[in-house]
Amino acid sequence: MASTDDKVILKSSEGECFEVDMAVASHLQIVKSVLEDCEGSSDKVVSLFIVEAKYVAMIIEYYKNYVELKEKHEEGGFEEKLKEFEKQFLEQIDKKELKGLVMAVNYLNAPALFDVVCTAIAKHIENKSVEYVREYFGIVNDFTAEEEAQIREEHRWAYDGVNDD
Amino acid sequence: MISTKRPKACSSPHQTSPSLSVATVVNNDDLLVQILLHLPVKSLLKFKCVSKHWLSIITNPQFSRRHYPVINSVCALFVQKFSHPRQPEFDFVDLHSNSSGAPFRFLTFSKDPSGIKITQSCNGLLLCSSYRANSYKTWYYVYNPTTKQFSALPRLRKASRVLGLTLAFDPWKSPDYKVVSVRKCDTSRHRCLIDIYSSRSGPWRVSGNPFTAATGNVKFNGVYSNGAIHWISDYGPSLYFDVDKEQLNQMPMPPIPDGWDRRRVMYFGECRGHLHLIENYSPPRDTPFDVCEMKKDYSGWVVKYRVDLDGVAKSFPEMARRYLDPFVLNYYSFQILSVIESGESDDYTFLVLHVPGKLIRYNLTDDSFKRLHVIGHGGDTDMEDENAENFTLIEAYKYIESLALV
Q1: Choosing among A160, A162, A163, which should be mutated to test the B contact, i.e. which has the most B CBs within 10 A?
Q2: Do residues A133 and A75 both lie within one domain?
Q3: Distance in angstroms (rounded) separating the CA atoms of residues B139 and B128
Q4: CDD domains under this entry (chain B) (predicted)?
Q5: pTM for this predicted structure
Q6: For an interface test with B, which of A157, A159, A160 has the most B Cβ atoms less than 10 Å from its Cβ?
Q7: What ipTM, to 2 d.p.?
Q8: Do A77 and A94 fall into the same domain?
Q9: What is the pLDDT of residues B147-182, one digit of tens each?
Q10: Contact call for residues B110 and B139 (beta carbons, < 8 A)
């Protein structure tokens, strides 16, 4: 029964279940600690109460590739191959979904992917306008017009070269 | 994806928020900080006005300490001109785009009655000093041109004997900086003493014992690179000083060619942890010349590039003198302002040349060149008319965006 031993089932907030290799799931610190807490129990189902299925799928896809690439390129070249994959992986993700994904990854405590998604969000907003960033994150501007003008005046040059939203 | 019939699941002990759709990225400070740490300085300054919360995160000292500048991010040059009678005037030369306006035309962060000049740029911070003041009235400042914060250094003892100051700042090693001053000893003409100021532990203190140096020939406004300050001499031995160990060593230098009694150094500087030296012994045209780089183990210099400026002189004929001044020795009027290694690819290195009225970017890897900047002529200056005969030297200091505290 070795095959069920190294599998675990991750359950999304909608109740959708994903069967995943332990080697993949163990990259999610939260899953690891839940399983440790439940040691001895025959149940291998971990509820990820607040993570939507689409994000669970993305995270599994990332770590599946991560584990495969690591095995395949044990001798070297792993970092480069991973970078290539990360690029493709991020291309499929909508900019709005990045926000949901980073929350999910942060909750599941998965360091490698966390860094990738944080970098992707930073790259996305780097050359955007202040107005775009407020809208993107749903932030309400709490400066008065005078206060904002004063801050802008301090670093006027930093506002050059803003890309179209 | 599979379906399962097991209804019971282990519950997570880490339930913190009820739903991710209600919580947002910006309500989670740790998460927001992680994202902001990945942004370049320019974006961070821009996003200070997103909200009060963002402003407080970005200006928090803890955040500055965690935010490293990108290692190869020389984004512009401050070109210092001395044509204004009361204070130096600056041109801002953006190396990547032409869009940015200058952060300043004069340095006025402190109300120094004698004006303020830059004497060194070091990994994002500038060492500045009073411009026209006698040694007793000279102030020294460490200035962050990105955040516009500055700190005035405590007064030096025996200010009149000071030969030069060098800033040592390496944000990848420590958020603190040191300033190293060299002064003449009271007792002997050729004996020098080092004083060190540390931003962490405060006041000036003497380091080590006096040492002998040909004080007139060593440039004690040094170059900081890889944990050491380098002082070159055009005549006697050149030195480098390990700032952490407080240890003085002799730096090997290329031999002075036969027929010359002293070095003709056109450029001595650093970029991305590499020390660069350009000497010139090719009168009257001053070309070709070699760009040398110090080996990592300090065993000597290697020639990295050979530069011939005849092509530049053809495109910019204004740099050729109409007659050869026997005292000046050179036929071309030009100046090497900076050697810059650019981050995009490893072997993308260029010179910034000053020829009459203009700056030129000269790529060392393929010998191509283009005009980078026309030197501005503000109120009292008249650089437009600069020609090969009235060529005036200027200085250039690298601008690296940084949130470093001063």
Answers
A1: A160
A2: no
A3: 8
A4: F-box_AtFBW1-like (cd22157)
A5: 0.79
A6: A157
A7: 0.90
A8: yes
A9: 888 999 999 888 888 999 999 999 888 889 999 999
A10: yes
